[in-house]
Amino acid sequence: xxxxxxxxxxxxxxxxxxxxxxxxxxxxxxxxxxxxxxxxxxxxxxxxxxxxxxxxxxxxxxxxxxxxxxxxxxxxxxxxxxxxxxxxxxxxxxxxxxxxxxxxxxxxxxxxxxxxxxxxxxxxxxxxxxxxxxxxxxxxxxxxxxxxxxxxxxxxxxxxxxxxxxxxxxxxxxxxxxxxxxxx
Length: 184
Prior knowledge:
By secondary structure, this protein is an all-alpha fold.
């Protein structure tokens, strides 16, 4: 994946996550105004945002998770757009962005696990956000493979021949498979 493809992966992943997070905030507000109304993202008993958004896991840090997601995806969108314009970003900024992105990848994995096995319902918007997050992490890994700093060799080996992209696809497929097994 060349620089433009990396930038597009980060930008599109961030844009998708930002839109889904924004819609989720709108759903939160609707739920606060009308606690017993069905939300637009309540598709059935499995894909049921109401069941997810009313649980403590949806405010793990004391405020709704989508607020945190909006801040994260906005930052990543700005980073992706800067990369699209061929801006030279400081290595420290890119490493910090990747660190934050990895935190969100872990947090999102925990959250989807809680949705699947504890809450026993899935938020379609959260799944969309996680898809965007996977795209961002894939792009950032590729960005670091092109870097000349420490750890470059490890990233180069991971990205050689597309093995990293295959790994991200397997990761996403495994999550989907576990959800399918749980709710099928």
